[in-house]
Target: Endoglucanase
Amino acid sequence: MLAFLLLLVTTGCLGGDVTSKFAIKQHWDNNFEGSFCFHLTSNLVGYEIFISFDSGVKELQQWEAEWVGSHPPCATKYTMVNKESKGVHSKGEDLCIRFMGKMCTGATPSGSATLKDLTDDHQKVPDIPHVNGAQSTKYNYGEVLEKSILFYEAQRSGKLPKNNRIPWRADSALGDKGDTGEDLTGGWYDAGDNVKFNFPMAWSTTVLTWGLIKWKDAYEKSGQLDYMYDSIRWPMDYLMKCHSKPNELYVQVGDGGTDHGSWTSPERMTGNRPAFKITTSQGGADVGLETAAALAAGSIAFKTKDAAYSRKLLAQAKSIYGFARKTKDRYSDTVNAAAAYYKSNNITDELGWGALWMYKATGDKSYIAEAEKHHEPGAAWGFSWDEKTAGVNMLLYEVTKKDIYKQDIIATMKSWMPGGDLPYTPKCLAFRLVWGALRYASNTALIALMAADQGINPVPYRKWAMSQINYALGDAGRSYVVGFGKNPPQRPHHRASSCPLLPAPCSWGAQQNPGPNPHTLYGALVGGPGSSDNYADDRKDYTKNEVACDYNAGFQSTVAGLLHLSIKHQLPTEYKSICSNRG
Ligand SMILES: *[C@@H]1O[C@H](CO)[C@@H](O)[C@H](O)[C@H]1NC(C)=O
Model:
């Protein structure tokens, strides 16, 4: 009885909308049935379809997608969006939708359906020319800076400004607030998740700002200086909001368990985002001191750019520092919600680090004496959001020029460089840990460049820093930076960039999608290879494919250092020899 009616299959280049015409025949009484198809010329992870009839229809049904909005009886326009589990389609496939409905008039309806691709965001990233007059380099470090800054822009939480450059991001988490309604919007999402963890966020801010203060010419000459100021201002504004009262500091917004138990973009989040704070009685010296360090560093960076903002940062840094010094606790012992994700091991390093940044911002020598009290001698394990000893010893040497601190730095570098304590991959990556190996190597590369800057073994340290950064940029045969260089990762473990554009739904289907993330998360350094340079671009493997604010921080600052050296014609012209001595 049901005579099937086919219509046109339309081929179109997606990216633009594609329209398919259909015709309808009445089959029985006033019922009709029809279908339309789109021949896909590119992969799809989400779509919307707009159906338009030339006369009103009612009780329209289809089984492939979800209706969007409410459609009054006898409407002529209907909109649908893919179901969460049915958004992914491959190039070459015919995407067909069968529908049934009832006519409202005696006329047989005809019309068309338009497919809107919610996959491609059309993001364009300008080319960055090599810096004029600088040494030529194997990789365009200015382009890396540009893209790394874009990565931080993609991590923004809160109300986005008009000059947002990430077309697939929008306002999110506008309800983030403290216990008594304090505004806690803003800041950066931590990694591939949507929690705001202030401890690593503040460390990332300090380390990025350190690189800007040291090697401002790299940002200036690559045209990135204003973007960089905007980049670090974002978390600084948020961290200041978190200091809601003289003796309290919010240190986390969002619950890790709830957040990691779902897979969606920040814009689609629903549900409660609890905020967690430290107080004098429920303390956290480490996170307080790191926050003070970030704002103190900011006050230095903004001194000539925006003097009023610089003063505000310094006043807040002093207030937070004073409050943090009243407590001796590790924050993750009092804020249980942080313990499973960013557990702090020891506050001794932050006692030195916070004091040294306060010294650099104020010139008050009592802070140096304070930092020296917390000196931890010998080789450091590394340099990270939790372990700042290498950075402390670096700054102690910079401000005192005492040989004991220089010996600590030499010990750390000896332990890290070929022939030292760390295993190396066959292609010369210092392999500290499988979870985010590239980030540890990049962070120690920053210490190496800072030490070289202070005249400590500059040639080998610079060569080694180059070997580690260039490994990530392509020396291992591929790039480990999303959207940069040869064969970059396309499937970072990152919720927002894995989701199609709104209004398509996004959940675990986006994580399981075998294809690339629909959005290129430009500039993100992924965790990196295993110990034998083994790597698979697999979204589900977070040890190798997660990205995070702290991963890019030391990396970006080191790249700024290398660009600075090329501008000054001090970059080693050869660096591979540094690898020949490894065990
Ligand atoms: C932290 O480190 C210091 C110095 O290395 C050490 O004396 C102290 O016992 C450590 N504290 C904890 C809680 O591990």
